[in-house]
Design brief:
Blueprint: H1 4-9, H2 11-19, H3 27-63, H4 67-103, E1 123-128, H5 140-147, E2 150-151, H6 152-159, E3 165-166, H7 168-187, E4 192-193, E5 199-200, H8 202-208, E6 219-220, E7 226-227, H9 232-236, E8 243-245, E9 251-260, E10 279-289, H10 294-311, E11 316-320, E12 332-340, E13 345-354, H11 358-363, E14 366-368, E15 376-377, E16 379-387, H12 388-398, E17 406-407, E18 421-422
Parallel strand pairs: 4-9, 8-14
Antiparallel strand pairs: 1-11, 2-3, 5-7, 6-7, 9-10, 10-16, 11-12, 12-13, 13-16, 14-15, 17-18
Helix pairs in contact: 3-4, 7-12
Amino acid sequence: MHDIRAIRLDPDAFDLAWARRGLGPTAAGLLVLDEALRSAQTTLQQAQSRRNEVSARIGKAKGAGNAAGAEAGLAEVETLKQTIAEQTRLEADLAARLRESLAGLPNLLAPEIPLGTDESGNVEVRRWGEPDLAAPTTDHVDLGAGLGMMDFEAASRMSGARFVVLRAGLARLERALGQFMIDFQTQEHGYVEVSPPLLVRDQALFGTGQLPKFAEDLFHTTDGYWLIPTAEVSLTNTVAGRITPEQELPLRLTALTPCFRSEAGASGRDTRGMIRQHQFAKVELVSITTPEQAHAEHERMVECAEAILKRLELPFRTVLLCSGDTGFTARKTYDLEVWLPSQKTYREISSCSDCGDFQARRMDARIKRVGEKGARFVHTLNGSGLAVGRALVAVMENYQDENGRIAVPQALHPYMRGMTRIGTDDG
């Protein structure tokens, strides 16, 4: 959410910034609305002030026995009442239109973001691990079917496409991955575990930027709730409408939750398997910081997500997203992409974003330093640490053998109750 006062001061700077995202000139239209709103507010205030003056004059006229003067004043008050009602409606309409226009505009990108129209413009930052190009390349769908532990048909009968039923060893492996990730982020990296709501109201999703622009990507209940697309929504909103003492920051939160996405914008993409599901588990990382802490916290968050892949010994690369691939709320995003042997390429498994004060303005989340009168907006950051379903896919494909069995990564052994390989008698 952008501050119209800042746009008034330097509209060209905002237009240049939005042009990096492929948007045409925008500031002028906002300023026309802003000027109309301020004019309506001025007219309303003048009418209210005049009504008060005339009302006081009516009282004096009545006290002096000036019936004609009182009558004239009453007639003017009636006219002013109509003006006030009209200007109140106009002010509300213009304020709503300006707010809607501002709410639909993306965050301004950090200066270092490379220009590009889509993912082809992303810049690789580093790699870790070497893919074994001679290893088996059966995809996770065929591996799961061969093990009798992954059933898309049963899921489709009860729920439709983009759902799966996992059984036995694969169900346990998925659970182990989630538990390992949440334990690792809390015990190794100091994130505070949270068990948040999975159902939220409109304002929560507006605060984190999913509403109103991306409503079609969400699941909505009949009584006004939304299923969270990520625990980012619930975790970030814990500071909504609050002033947090600066000494409490950075605030690092994490949660392992189900996530729900309609994938309306991904029609026809990744229809096979578990890459893009309507329901999936994810460990989310959220940091609430001061503006000065945000850059270092972003780099730290990326390292925390990378550490999971290193412990699982999965080859991956880290990329900096270009202007055309950076999400609506982010000013800067790194993606972690894990190697999938069946596709012979790297696929996204985590996005870590610095949102600056963009979300904080939408949810009115502020910080206050001891001894200072004013409060300023926090900065918010979020990332996957990691997406559990995609991690399961990566483990299955990278740890398969020529007989279709799946070795369990060493890091997960404490969570598997002695199971070291899936596809044997004990798996």
